[in-house]
Glycerophosphodiester phosphodiesterase family protein (Bosea rubneri), 326 residues
Amino acid sequence: MKRFALYVLLALGLIAGLAAFQNSSLLAPKLTERPVLLAHRGLAQTYSAEGIDAATCTATRIDPPEHRYIENTIASMEAAFAAGADIVEIDVHPTRDGQFAVFHDWTLECRTNGAGTTRDKTMAELKALDIGHGYTADGGKSFPFRGQGVGLMPSLDEVLDRLPNQRLLINVKSRDAQEGRSLAQRLSQLPPERLARLMVYGGEPPVAALREALPSLVTMSAQAEKRCLMRYLAMGWAGITPDECAKQLLLIPSNYTKWLWGWPERFTARMRAVGSEVIVAGPLVGGEVSTGIDRPEDLARLGRPLPGIWTNRIDRIAPLVKAATP
């Protein structure tokens, strides 16, 4: 009996030693490059995330403006790239005439002088709206962007034409599988080198349809990421990367990284080997990911090295990251 217990202890010790070796960063490729910077909504107006839900009109609670840019406009995307972004996130909705409008909301009342839903309008009708109409930082006493956003809602085609060499993360703002198929049909017309600079995330049905139609595309849904990470937690100790993790955008809450086998360098190397992108966001608190790594103290808490960073304040975070990169 004692001998059997000894054998068990030896076996457990070997397994623990194997796990430690397989997941040590000592032999992993070093993350010596600057972290990939992903600018959520381009260079945009910020707002407090406290107490918001899916129905909150965030345009009516912005912080006092520090710049003139409105989210999801081509000008805000260009400004984000100029500030140091490697990837810019944009939101899309189908229009009545078969295009995709780049705009955050399902409905128009919050940000614009229009009414109804984006999908019930033509692209020409959407371009006639003032997308700066609803923004206020003082409870409606003043509207600093009113009258300045007419014609600024771009189509996805315009964005792709204007930024042909830039990396974009496209957010499908629905759970409609047909929307995924329609977007896949549009993206399939792009040259392979352009498609390789795009990623898509959103609801499970449209993202699943996109992955089926365009298996080379890097995508993300909450369900797909959960499948990948749960399988990795079970298998990663042995150095195994699950098939579910291939071609995924992995948006990792900063307070969950400590649970990932081989974080950061071994984990990142494994995911990059299967064509995936790893980005660190704010902590998961109360079931939701925070708005981003937006303050110097948020960045300082992350530690180094890092594969990528999700931020709403590319203008603040990019200079800090650049200064800290050898």
Observations:
- Residues 55 and 110 are 10 Å apart (CA to CA).
- Residues 4-18 have pLDDT under 50 and may be disordered.
- DSSP finds eleven helices and eleven strands in the chain.
- The two ends are 57 Å apart (CA to CA).
